[in-house]
């Protein structure tokens, strides 16, 4: 596992100086076993759920799903402490999603949680990942 963390510029600005959030991120990174196979499997399940979910599938219509999968695998590997991330910020990556709402983000988090559980991850593991994903809500929604 590299020394890369979500501290600093990868965290949304409102969390960068929040010791509680930084501690939560460190906890997730130290307790989650991260490997490419697991992350790729979760991402495949996640996008298979999303493209069938009427609440959010409009955001995936006409999208290069292979590229999207690769980008999310890379980002999750970073979040879980597996490698450095040098892609766009979450705000920049989702800037084009002008119509995304809290209800959409809730559905995405629900689908991400379901994907981790379907892959075989524990409930507590999944909850810790979702807690970190929750910190990105405002950046993804564009607030």
TrEMBL record:
It holds the Pfam family Bac_globin. It comes from the Eukaryota. GO terms for molecular function: heme binding; metal ion binding; oxygen binding. The keyword Metal-binding applies. SUPFAM superfamilies: Globin-like. Keywords: Heme, Iron, Metal-binding, Transport. InterPro entries: Globin-like_sf (IPR009050), Globin/Proto (IPR012292), Hemoglobin_trunc (IPR001486). This is Uncharacterized protein.
